[in-house]
Amino acid sequence: MPVREELRRNAVARIRSSEPLFDDVLGYHNTVVPQVENALLAGHDMIMLGERGQAKTRMIRGLAGLLDEWMPIIAGSEINDDPYAPVSAHAKALVAEQGDDTPIEWVHRADRYGEKLATPDTSIADLIGEVDPIKVAEGRYLSDELTLHYGLVPRTNRGIFAINELPDLAERIQVGLLNVLEERDVQIRGYKVRLPLDVVLVASANPEDYTNRGRIITPLKDRFGAQIRTHYPLDADTETAIVAQEAYLGPGAGDAAGETAGPGTEGMAVTVPSFMTRIVVAITRAARSSPHVSQRSGVSVRLSISNAETMVANAMRRTLRAGGDHVVPRVTDLEALSSSTAGKVEIETLEEGREAEILQRLVSSAALSVFKDCVPPDMHRAVVDAFEEDLVVDVGDDVADADYAGLLAQIPALTAPVQALLADDEAAESPAMVASAVELVLEGLHLSKRLNKDAQGPRAQYRSR
Questions:
Q1: Residue 164: enclosing H or E segment and its boundaries?
Q2: Same domain, 172 and 282
Q3: Domain limits at 109?
Q4: Cα–Cα distance for residue pair 87/79, rounded to 1 Å
Q5: Residues 155 and 241 in one domain
Q6: What's the rounded Cα separation, in Å, for the pair 228 and 31?
Q7: How is residue 425 annotated by DSSP?
Q8: Considering 229, 248, 269, which residue would you say is the last residue of a domain?
Q9: Residues 148-168: pLDDT tens digits?
Q10: Cβ(310)–Cβ(318) under 8 Å?
Q11: Which of 70, 100, 159, 380 could pair with 112 in a Cys bridge, judged by C-beta atoms 3.0 to 4.6 Å apart?
């Protein structure tokens, strides 16, 4: 069975049984996945077109799961020769000599997937093949097909071959793929050998390279049967679910990757309040609409993942210094996100040194939006009124969780907004969770211009306006 028929048959079974095509790709169920299903049912080669961090490579690798688990090949074949239809000189000679006694090997689906990251120095020899001087030195004639060393594409015969970042492939090398996509064969050097290949070719590209620079040659674009456009998560809930799935948030945080507590973190537990995750996601989504951030290269979901991990790491460092064992991120920990944000967004500004200011604005706008969503406006006034009596509240890395919890007794009006923030969280009564909620209430009122904030080194003070 040709590999396209194999993929089509297994895709039909998945669709009929309502099984997901990709188990760990979120947010594409109604947009991208139907396009991939159409391409599989049509037997098309595909090019995934999208910005960085849109799961293009993950989906391409996931296609290997649609292959049969095991496939028979002629033993010793470099290009997965079909026992009933050998194409290489080695396989043909073996079948002619041994007939039905030809030895068979079984190849797992994982070995039927090949991948190459396109780089400017990639050569035709890498992809298609070249004469092997060692085989010539062993006494074979140059005209002997057995002197050939097959490249990555022939070695993925009867499987799926992927090229990541296709526009980075030199144009003269792209020409070498034309026959693979249309005539389904490869030609090596000046040999008269033509190997009919059974391979599905899938590529990924960034639309900036694809449309503006024109670095994929037109005949190659024409040979891809399907162009599938990916996108960033359409809503905050999907991006939040991706962060929960991908980010390592420490021991006890329910990370999807299955990491366990490392040395020195035994006995510690990490709880990330839902509103803190929402702030991290809101920062990314604010960056995608900011006029100060370049939208040409996109703002990857990796920004949300890295920021969530950095936020938890800073909270863990703070908790370790304080001698605690319950790690809960606070608004204070958001100051650490500059290190994980700066490398993932391209700031567009004419003034030197404004990058830090722009990043801080993104964090502030995210915190304010989450505060407004979670805390009803009718709860604000009572807290603001409590500060009219010359009340000053200190926050910072060195302020203990118990001190924040004590504020609820000192300022009863804080209880209602804190409960509103922690309504959907477990361990809501713990001092660390209360401390995190108190900080967001105070910061939200400051950003709403209801309280003043004086920053002094590692500490900040909130007071009435």
A1: strand 159-164
A2: no
A3: 3-229
A4: 9
A5: no
A6: 10
A7: -
A8: 229
A9: 778 888 899 999 999 998 888
A10: no
A11: 159
Of 204, 229, 254, which closes a domain?
229
Pair (181, 278) in one structural domain: no
Comparing 161-170, 222-231, 260-269, the range with the smallest average pLDDT is 260-269
Give the model confidence (pLDDT) of 240-259 as tens digits: 999 999 988 876 664 333 33
Q: How far is CA 324 from CA 10, 251, 265, 409, in A?
A: 52, 14, 11, 22
Residues 282 and 403 in one domain: yes
Task: Kindly write down the DSSP assignment for every residue of 386-399, as one continuous string.
Answer: HGGGT--EEEETTS
Q: Name the strand (E) or helix (H) holding 243.
A: helix 236-246
Exposed / middle / buried, residue 269 (Cβ in 10 Å: 0-12, 13-18, 19+): middle
Whether residues 183 and 260 share a domain: the answer is no
Please check whether residues 374 and 316 belong to one and the same domain. Answer: yes
Phi, psi of 200 (to 5 degrees): -100, 125
- The number of CA neighbours under 13 Å toward the Cβ of 394 is 12
C-alpha span between 334 and 366 (Å, rounded): 11
456: tokens are 């002094």
Q: What does DSSP say about strands 70-74 and 104-108: parallel, antiparallel, or unpaired?
A: antiparallel
Give the integer Cα–Cα distance in Å for 130 and 147. Answer: 9
Q: Angle, to 10 degrees, between the axis of helix 236-246 and the axis of helix 301-322?
A: 60
Total structural domains within the chain? 2
Strand-pairing partners, residue 160, are: 113, 200
pLDDT band at 137 (very low <50, low <70, confident <90, very high): low
Measured distance CA(66)–CA(7) in Å, rounded: 6
